[in-house]
Specification:
The complex is a heterodimer of chains A (about 325) and B (about 280). By secondary structure, chain A is α+β, with helices and mostly antiparallel strands. In chain A, about 30% of the residues lie in helices and about 30% in strands. In chain B, helix 8 crosses helix 10. Classes of the chains: A alpha+beta (about 325), B mainly alpha (about 280). At the A-B interface, strand 6, helix 2 and helix 4 of A face helix 9 and helix 10 of B.
Chain lengths: ~325, ~280
């Protein structure tokens, strides 16, 4: 285990940021700490880095007890949401910072900086100031700077949060490739489930200061431990107290399918290839739920407002592991 | 319509109002600052250059100017070190009594320098002050000597560095410092390589302001100085003494030197300012 966090607790006044959190982050992997804002994931990352001290619990990095080590002794690379570029230094000097602090020989520093700038595609910007770079370039510089000191672990705090959607997407693909190249144990914080699902080997879902679930993206998506994890990883809709994915509900224009529920389409909203149908269940409660079908499917069935339909969860539909049992008895 | 809305409100003031405002502002500054200051120089040089150079080579004058320079430099250095320290404390740390400290720092701005002088006198005088007699037994004279005058000057100029540095520290935040720490820099290395370059211009500006204010300090120094010519008489005290002693040329000449030094400070600041913005 590369990073072992056990029993970490952190409070700010009355607010409990982390409540007895224990988690193991394996060596060489790319792990995402995923959760809503204010859920404690950034605090956990900062405690691992030593930028914040926990009220209780321990942090072990590669077998070294690090709970009380100052950040400069932990050998971690940290990348901040807002880059934290050293504004008065050129890109090359920024990257060289950690090596200069470690008093490495000058030619070694130059060689290493050149290598890293090559790696993050910033070679031609070596002499610029950070202010002359775009957000994405600044963040790549910050990454090179963090990697320069050959950290045991690389920690990224919402690294793409301040970038626009397109750059964010490019950078996270790039981060994935970079990680495959560099193979350093990496932990990144995000509130974007798509980012976590796309980039991470393993995801730790954190909410209200607790770990909700740990697993691979597939495990989390296919077998969410509870309603929270399920609804955080994607859109959900509820039938009889059970959460379903809106695309895991099949729509029929005729009755007679075993277990199907009569309903009526209230609204339709077309977004690109998919159509989001708001459907009113024709039961006592008259709940409205959302069902997503493809544009082609909608056309072939002639789905439109005020049409009576019958709904049934797709065979193999994903539901939270715990919930069906509980609701069945309720 | 949209074009009308986009033009600034100021530009749309009637011509008469704009010209009127300018005349009032310029007139105000000229009558209050420009003209009187010019007259100081005019009076200093009224009897010709030789009388100015005579006045400025008088041993009492050179000693006063030297004393003022010494006190100002020491006071600025002290305020520089403690100003940076207190600013870091105020911005980067949370502690009990922080708001009280922040308010106390502004006291010198609002309190009369004469009161500052009296307060120092009460604590450090050699007869019945709190620390004075003990210190004097140990061989340190504070009141009626250079240390007292330095303290008075430090007190009066205390907020100037801090009030320049604090907003800049707040603005740059501690991200860069944390990044430096995570890259292996110790506290001192982080301060020297990251914090200091970040607040460099604020420091320069604060130092220049402190220097200008220290050179001209009068009220507080007047109380704690014995005002002995050639020993504890600073330039401002000398100006007053000479003026009252009907040595007008000397008084005006030294006043002109002080005014020139203060103006030089301001010019330096105005040259430095654009650099600060473009960086």
């Amino acid at each position: 285990m590369s990073i072992k966090v056990s029993g970490i607790t952190k409070t700010y006044g009355d607010f409990v940021a982390l409540d007895d959190v224990s988690v193991d982050l394996p060596t060489g992997q790319l792990t995402a700490l995923l959760g809503p804002s204010g859920g404690g994931k950034s605090t956990l990352l900062r405690i691992i880095a030593g930028l914040e001290t926990a009220d209780g619990g321990t942090v072990t990095i590669e077998g070294t007890e690090a709970t009380h080590l100052p950040p400069q002794k932990r050998n971690v690379g940290f990348v901040f949401q807002h880059y934290a570029a050293f504004k008065h230094m050129s890109v090359a000097r920024n990257v060289a910072f950690g090596l200069e602090i470690r008093k490495r020989p000058k030619d070694e520093i130059r060689r290493r900086v050149d290598e890293l700038l090559e790696l993050v595609h910033l070679s031609q910007f070596a002499d610029r100031l950070p202010a002359q770079l775009s957000g994405g370039q600044r963040q790549r510089m910050a990454l090179a700077r963090a990697l320069a000191v050959e950290p045991t672990v690389l920690l990224l705090d919402e690294p793409f949060g301040a970038l626009d959607a397109k750059v964010r997407k490019e950078l996270r693909e790039w981060l994935r490739r970079l990680h495959d190249e560099v193979q350093v144990t990496t932990v990144f914080v995000t509130h974007d489930q798509e980012e976590a699902l796309e980039v991470a080997d393993e995801i730790v879902v954190i909410n209200e200061g607790r770990v909700e679930q740990v697993g691979t993206p597939d495990q989390l998506y296919d077998a969410p431990a509870n309603d929270f994890v399920m609804s955080f990883l994607g859109p959900t809709t509820e039938i009889d107290g059970v959460l379903y994915r809106p695309h895991d509900i099949e729509v029929f224009t005729h009755p007679g399918i075993a277990g199907s529920i009569p309903a009526r389409i209230v609204r339709e909203l077309r977004v690109g290839f998919e159509v989001r149908l708001t459907v009113e269940l024709l039961d006592a409660a008259h709940e409205e739920i959302t069902v997503t079908v493809t544009r082609a499917h909608q056309r072939s069935l002639g789905l439109r407002s005020d049409l009576d339909v019958w709904l049934a969860p797709t065979h193999g539909a994903v539901v939270p592991i715990m919930e069906p049992v509980e609701t069945a008895t309720a | 319509m949209a074009r009308d809305l986009s033009s600034s409100a100021v530009a749309r003031e009637p011509l008469g109002v704009r010209i009127g405002l300018r005349v009032v502002t310029i007139g105000y500054v000229v009558m209050l600052v420009g003209w009187p200051t010019t007259l100081v120089f005019k009076n200093a040089f009224g009897d010709g250059l030789s009388s100015v150079s005579d006045a400025l080579t008088d041993p009492a004058v050179t000693s006063a100017l030297q004393l003022t320079a010494t006190i100002s430099v020491i006071a600025v250095l002290i305020n520089l070190v403690f100003g940076v320290g207190i600013s870091l404390l105020l911005v980067r740390y949370e502690f009990w009594g922080k708001r009280v400290l922040s308010t106390l720092i502004d006291v010198p701005l609002s309190i009369s320098p004469v009161v500052v002088g009296l307060a120092l006198l009460l604590v450090y005088n050699g007869n019945d002050g709190w620390f004075g007699p003990t210190l004097e037994k140990l061989g340190f004279q504070i009141i009626f000597a250079t240390p007292g005058m330095v303290m008075a000057t430090v007190f009066v100029a205390l907020p100037l560095v801090i009030r320049e540095v604090v907003p800049v520290l707040q603005e740059i935040g501690d991200d860069q410092e944390q990044a430096a720490r995570s890259l292996g820099a110790s506290g001192i290395q982080t301060f020297r390589r990251i914090t200091l370059p970040g607040i460099k211009w604020a420091l320069v500006y604060g130092v220049v302001l402190s220097l200008a204010s220290s050179l001209g300090e009068f009220g507080a120094v007047k109380i704690v100085s014995s005002n002995v010519s050639g020993e504890t008489q600073t330039a401002t005290l000398l100006v007053q003494a000479k003026y009252e002693g009907f040595e007008q040329t000397t008084a005006y000449s030294v006043a002109a030197v002080l005014a020139f030094a203060a103006m030089a400070c301001l010019v330096i600041v105005s040259i430095l300012r654009p650099k600060e913005q473009s960086s």
